[in-house]
């Protein structure tokens, strides 16, 4: 490949961007739509174009949208973190002797996106004083570092912080109380890094203390150290300050080594007004009274942990507390007017904490656990060690007004975040490409713990459930306990898990997105072959059907070629009870997934669902309704009226008796309520007259109750756009809003953040044509490059 060298420099880069930026939209789009091109190749080509320091930020934004484009074209799955852990553009510059340029025009000494490992943190002393009137904060820190290789600079992460002073002390300086040596600070915002240049080379195997004074505004969004507001019942607006650091926003609150590999201990002090309280990861040691009525809270030093798990809050909340069996104090905090809604969360937290300590055979290592309902919060919840932060809807439960679904959601969120106290906090992924070690196990243990503590729920699982079944319950449990104990307070990789599970045959399919497919074909009455591997299974004579992946314990999809699907369809219609509910669910799931992959006709999948009129298992009914509703919406959006009407008639024909049996009251078991909700929702989608009439009546009542003139919370914007886009008539409206307001959205939410991902996926997930794919790809690229 011939590469045209472009000079590095601001003027050259800006000129190239002006002349070439628009043309590269088509160039990148062509790459994205070529089946022969994979993501690494495309990123590599972009690196060769966006190779100057000043264009690194444009490159990052462009690559983010290429990920979005690949998501839309179903080539890969979008993840919060990709496998590309360092920037080849920086290596490209480094190989040519070119280094980034700092904001003051000097050469920035480190060209990589990842931090060097020649200096590592051991301990942070962090002081923070937020002002909830002026909405800013002043802070200082001392970082004890260990130098592993001689160097004349220290690289830290820092974003939107004003560094006022930085000094360095050696062990000798500290011993003899010598003043710190002033450091030169260089900033490179494109990588969110600062360089501390030392007057004398730092020597290997010695410790140093870095002191930094800094200040910043409390962030307007939901990342870093930000402000959140709530209104009292009396109409007063109050402000609190809260942190949210995962994955890379600790650098917005204090200069730090903001990668999960760099674990350290933290000693935190927070200055506040007397009308507020301060919370952090650890219990409070003491409070010092200062002049002017200010108070300063000192917290115990944390266990060794990553920066993204550090948390602190200044607020005026009330709490309810209890004690777990092991003596851990558990508290639920909320705005004063919502304190009465915290009691169920306390009950669930105590029960789930006891479960996890017994299951893992590892005590929760901190003396307390706080869960706080934050009025403005980006995701559902965040597992900060000892200080879990949640949306109010994810933690609060009002017995008078909340539904059973609300209660289940609160339970699931608490179970998930408490599981993270072990998976993610005690043992942490080395880098974000192995994030599934955190999220996968937390999700799996959420299901296990809720099944045990609240057995009325019946959850399934994914790849981890397959491993448990493959290894046996006891061996799987023993393996994950070994994993937790071996890597406590350390970092782990994907391979470390497989090693702990001690099974050589577990060559991971976790590295590839989506499902695996297994094709099976009956070739005679006495044998069956697997097309993928060429295996043959001998069957008894007169075998009329075969069901693979019994109980869905395997994380793969089975395609029954030949007469296989017809045989199973006949079985379901004649006597579906011969298969267990899990197997009936898996057949529905596999059939519609194969339709999506273009390997099975929609007609065949619909034939499979005909038996649902006789189905008695609510989970199986819900799975069928889920896919039927999905494909109805696809047909509806294709605007093929005759097909849509036929499908509508088909669905009403089979589900009208069940729909007409439903009441409009939230009563019955958990599964009864879920089925009622699904059936009535489907009935309204199908314009079933009785349903439309009742829904309109209830909607009018809701509007009357809700006419208070409150503005929709920013945190709920993604959910609102998703809801609008689900309606065929609102889909284009929502997508146009995103295109027209993209710059404003990026100012409010971080690029790559949870809301941005939800906004993109929520407004485009119902697109199903090549033209729509083309529009999404073109629009996103034009938005970024204009």
Automatic annotation (TrEMBL):
Subcellular location: Membrane
Location of the active site: 417
CC cofactor: Zn(2+)
GO CC aspect terms: cytoplasm; extracellular space; membrane
Keyword Transmembrane: yes
Domain ERAP1-like C-terminal: 545-702
Ranges where the Aminopeptidase N-like N-terminal domain occurs: 121-309
CDD domains per the UniProt record, alphabetical: M1_APN-Q_like
Principal location class: membrane
Any one GO BP annotation for this protein: peptide catabolic process
Entry keyword annotation includes ATP-binding: no
Gene Ontology molecular function terms on file: metalloaminopeptidase activity; peptide binding; zinc ion binding
Every Peptidase M1 membrane alanine aminopeptidase domain range: 344-458, 460-503
Family: Belongs to the peptidase M1 family.
Protein name: Aminopeptidase
């Amino acid at each position: 490949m011939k590469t045209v060298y472009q000079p590095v420099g601001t003027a050259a880069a800006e000129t190239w961007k002006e002349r070439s930026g628009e043309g590269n939209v088509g160039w990148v789009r062509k790459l994205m739509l070529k089946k022969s091109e994979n993501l690494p190749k495309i990123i590599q080509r972009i690196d060769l174009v966006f190779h100057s320091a000043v264009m690194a930020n444009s490159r990052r934004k462009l690559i983010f949208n290429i990920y979005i484009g690949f998501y839309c074209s179903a080539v890969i799955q979008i993840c919060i973190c990709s496998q590309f852990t360092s920037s080849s553009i920086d290596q490209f510059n480094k190989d040519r002797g070119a280094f980034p340029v700092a904001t003051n025009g000097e050469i920035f000494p480190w060209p990589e996106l990842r931090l060097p490992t020649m200096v590592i943190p051991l301990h942070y002393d962090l002081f923070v004083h937020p002002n909830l009137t002026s909405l800013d904060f002043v802070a200082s820190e001392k970082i004890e570092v260990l130098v592993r290789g001689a160097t004349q600079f220290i690289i830290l992460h820092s974003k939107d912080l004003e560094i006022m002073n930085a000094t360095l002390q050696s062990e000798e300086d500290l011993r003899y109380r010598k003043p710190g040596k002033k450091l030169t600070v260089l900033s490179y915002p494109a990588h969110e890094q600062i360089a501390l240049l030392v007057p004398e080379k730092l020597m290997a195997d010695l410790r140093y203390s870095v002191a930094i004074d800094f200040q910043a505004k409390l962030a307007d969004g939901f990342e870093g150290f930000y402000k959140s507001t709530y209104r009292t019942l009396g109409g007063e607006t109050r402000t609190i300050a809260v942190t949210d650091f995962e994955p890379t926003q600790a650098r917005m609150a204090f200069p730090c080594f903001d990668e999960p590999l760099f674990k350290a201990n933290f000693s935190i002090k927070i200055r506040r007004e007397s009308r507020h309280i301060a919370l952090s990861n650890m219990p409070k040691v003491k409070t010092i009274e200062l002049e002017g009525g200010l108070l300063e809270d000192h917290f115990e030093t944390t266990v060794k942990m990553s920066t993204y798990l550090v948390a602190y809050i200044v607020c005026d909340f009330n709490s309810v507390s209890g004690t777990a069996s092991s003596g851990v104090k558990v508290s639920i905090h909320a705005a004063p007017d919502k304190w009465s809604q915290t009691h169920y969360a306390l009950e669930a937290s105590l029960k789930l904490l006891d479960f996890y300590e017994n299951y893992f055979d590892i005590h929760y290592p901190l003396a307390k656990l706080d869960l706080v309902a934050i009025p403005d919060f980006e995701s559902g919840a965040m597992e900060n060690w000892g200080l879990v932060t949640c949306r109010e809807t994810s933690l609060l439960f009002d017995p008078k007004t909340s539904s059973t679904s609300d209660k289940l959601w609160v339970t699931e969120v608490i179970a998930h975040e408490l599981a993270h106290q072990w998976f993610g906090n005690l043992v942490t992924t080395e880098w974000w490409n192995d994030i599934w070690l955190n999220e996968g196990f937390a999700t799996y243990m959420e299901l296990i713990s809720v099944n045990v503590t609240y057995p009325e729920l019946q959850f399934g699982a994914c790849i981890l459930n397959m491993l448990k079944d493959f290894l046996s319950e006891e061996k799987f449990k023993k393996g994950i306990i070994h994993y937790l104990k071996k890597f406590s307070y350390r970092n782990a990789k994907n391979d470390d898990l497989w090693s702990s599970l001690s099974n050589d045959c577990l060559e991971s399919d976790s590295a590839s997105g989506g499902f695996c497919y297994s094709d099976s074909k009956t070739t005679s009455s006495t044998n069956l072959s697997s097309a993928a591997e060429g295996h043959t299974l001998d069957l008894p004579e007169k075998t009329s059907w075969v069901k693979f992946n019994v109980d869905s314990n395997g994380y793969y999809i089975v395609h029954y070629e030949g007469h296989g699907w017809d045989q199973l369809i006949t079985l379901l219609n004649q006597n579906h009870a011969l298969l267990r509910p899990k197997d009936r669910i898996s057949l529905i799931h596999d059939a519609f997934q194969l339709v999506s992959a273009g390997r099975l006709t929609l007609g065949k999948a619909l034939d499979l669902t005909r038996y649902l009129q006789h189905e008695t298992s609510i989970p199986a009914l819900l799975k069928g309704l889920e896919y039927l509703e999905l494909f109805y919406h696809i047909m509806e959006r294709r605007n093929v009226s005759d097909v849509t009407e036929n499908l509508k008639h088909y669905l009403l024909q089979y589900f009208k008796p069940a729909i007409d049996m439903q009441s409009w009251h939230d009563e019955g078991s958990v599964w009864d309520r879920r089925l009622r909700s699904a059936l009535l929702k489907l009935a309204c989608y199908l314009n079933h007259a009785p349903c439309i009439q009742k829904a309109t009546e209830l909607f009018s009542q809701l509007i009357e109750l809700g006419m208070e003139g409150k503005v929709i919370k920013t945190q709920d914007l993604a959910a609102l756009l998703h809801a609008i886009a689900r309606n065929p008539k609102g889909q284009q409206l929502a997508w146009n809003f995103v295109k027209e307001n993209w710059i404003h959205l990026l100012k409010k939410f971080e690029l790559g953040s949870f809301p941005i991902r939800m906004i993109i996926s929520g407004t485009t997930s119902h697109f199903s044509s090549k033209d729509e794919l083309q529009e999404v790809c073109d629009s996103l690229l034009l938005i970024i490059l204009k």
